[in-house]
Amino acid sequence: MVVNGGGPQGHPVEETLEGGIPLNGGSMVGGPVPNPLGANKELFVETIAKDAYVYAQQGKRKTLQRKDLDNAIEAIDEFAFLEGSRCEPARIHMERLLLLEGDREVEVVGGCHCSAWPEECLRLPALKTFFPDSPWEVTVDVGRCSEPTYGAGSLFCMPTKFSTALVKNPSGGKVIRTLESCEMKEKCYRVSQVEYYYEIVHSSTGHREKRLKEIDVGRCLGSCSSGDPCLLRESQGGEKCLAWAEVASRRCAPHRYDVHIFRSHRDRIRTVVAIQQCKCRG
Q1: Considering 131, 163, 185, which residue would you say is the last residue of a domain?
Q2: How far apart are CA 273 and CA 150, in angstroms?
Q3: Nearby residues of 111 by Cβ (< 8 Å), 6 or more positions away
Q4: Which stretches make up the Transcription factor CBF/NF-Y/archaeal histone domain (predicted)?
Q5: Is 11 a domain residue?
Q6: DSSP per residue, 201-238
Q7: Are residues 228 and 172 part of one domain?
Q8: Are residues 197 and 272 in the same domain?
Q9: Segments forming the whole domain that contains residue 195
Q10: Are residues 264 and 218 part of one domain?
């Protein structure tokens, strides 16, 4: 890249192809000009990190938080282009680790980038690579939900509909759950889960028929926050907690049900319970 048409000490810079071949017929002095973007990225990250650390020190903290970066971006006009964006993983691949307690699959972030922060609840792409550096390497869009910037009270952008994708591996295949849609929901919420059963019915003429019965049994997703258990901190806005309360664990569980009773294809009375509402319970 040439700025103001000159190189170091104002000497002209000739355009060259990779390998040092001149494009404008001039003589080749050396190899290709090194790309300065890497150094610029390091300088940018160092600058914004230093500014964010000032806000962390004001809060008497030694670790950076998201709000420190937000404050640094809002305070400096040169960082205005970052407003409304967030740092997110650019590449993720799954690796299987052999631990003492057995195999565990972990996500490894291969790089980060700034992306737009949508103001509405959307399903966004999220690419994950399975079995990297192998003949079975494949990348799947598993999807994720956005985090809207506007205040929506107690509602959050949560996953509501899922699908599956089959990934081939040395053992035959692996089923990967993918996200299809997101909606604004409470943290503990019900999602649809359809199950199918054979039902025996008798027509008006007395004939016995076997039909396929569809029941949305539902399931509960989400989490139940119990608030901040810390009762006393070292200082206002400090991270060190001096006294905390024991909080009973809460879970998102079914609250209301519907009951479906029918005769199965084995001529037995079958009862299926369907979840209608979910609620946090201790």
Answers
A1: 185
A2: 37
A3: 89, 90, 91
A4: 42-73
A5: no
A6: EE-TTS-EEEEEEEEE--EEEE-------EEEESSTT-
A7: no
A8: yes
A9: 187-282
A10: yes
Strand partners for 164: 177
Burial 80-113 (b: 16+ CB within 10 A, else e): eebeeeeeebeebbbeeeeeeeeeeeeeeeeeee
Taking the whole predicted model, whether its pTM rises above 0.70 is answered as no
Q: b or e along 156-184 (b: 16 or more beta carbons within 10 Å of the residue's beta carbon)?
A: bbbbbebeeeebeeeeeeeebeebeebbb
3-state DSSP call for residue 77? helix
Going by C-alpha positions, the residue among 146, 145, 149 that lies closest to residue 159 is 145
Task: Report the CATH number that the domain containing residue 266 is assigned in CATH.
Answer: 2.10.90
Q: Is residue 163 part of a domain?
A: yes
The reply to whether 200 and 246 lie within a common domain is yes
DSSP secondary structure letter of residue 10: G
